[in-house]
Structure formats: C-alpha cells, structure tokens
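S1.2 Input.
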Amino acid sequence: MIRKAEMRDMDAVLRVYKAAKAYMVASGNPNQWEEGYPECVLDRDIQKGDLYVLCGDDGTIYAAFAFILGEDPTYAVIEEGAWTSGEPYGTIHRVGSDGTERGVFSKCLEFCKARSPYLRADTHHDNKTMQHVLEKHGFVRRGIIYTDDGTPRIAYEYFA
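S1.3 Output.
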C-alpha cells in the first residue's frame, strides 16, 4: 500500500532514509545525500503532501519517496541533451528503502504514472543502482541538470 506520509510517520521515514543512505555509501555512492539530507526537506514534503510511504500488510513503513506534480525549477536548464516534451509532468525524488521488500521502484512507478503519464527523475553519477532501476523501467537519459547547490545530476524522462 502507498499512502501520503504524515508527521506521525517521521521516525519510520527517518529509519528508511538512514538505511537507504547506508546502502548508497556501501554501493559506492557516498556523496549524493550529504549530511542532513533528505532529513532537512521531509517536514516540507509532508506539509505539502508530496511525501509518500510504502507500507506492508501490517502497516510497517519500508520505503518512502517524494512525488511532485508541476514544474521543478532544477529541470528548467538541461545540458548535454534536451527534454523531448514541454508538457506537464510529475517528478519522482528521494526514493529510499529499508531493504526489507523488493520491487519498491516498480510500485512507486505504478503509483506515479497513474497520476501523470509524463515523469521526470534524476540521480547522481555515482548512483549506479538508481541509474539501472530507472533504465530498467523505461526511463531515458536526457542530459545533465544541476541541483540547488550546483551539483550535476543525470536527468531522465518517462512516458507511460
């Protein structure tokens, strides 16, 4: 089950992101989520209704992600490529799992594409796991975008 995160979920969401960060470091991606991130944006994501959690049959949260409909300012400029469409899109950000369940991104994608047929996502150059997962699910590399702090990310798009 996927549902909107609530403030009462914060401890479970923090546990998920702690596990996700440990996995990222262990798999050769220690720099994508610097100290304090994504924790610093979770309150805002929950308040805006953009953070979602994946729950097991018993209600235990095992994954989280942000899904945002509308323009993402970091996608306004793309280098070394181009977006193929200017139509409205949804963006998938901050996918994290505690590793206890498989198929997290598949579930996330099904949820998101039911809300928008055009999706965008991005990931760090060192995040080989996410690059593989995005491409496996039909996302296509479109170029390089830059986050608010100026670091480059590989930009992807998907059409349902």
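S1.4 Remarks. The mean pLDDT is 95.
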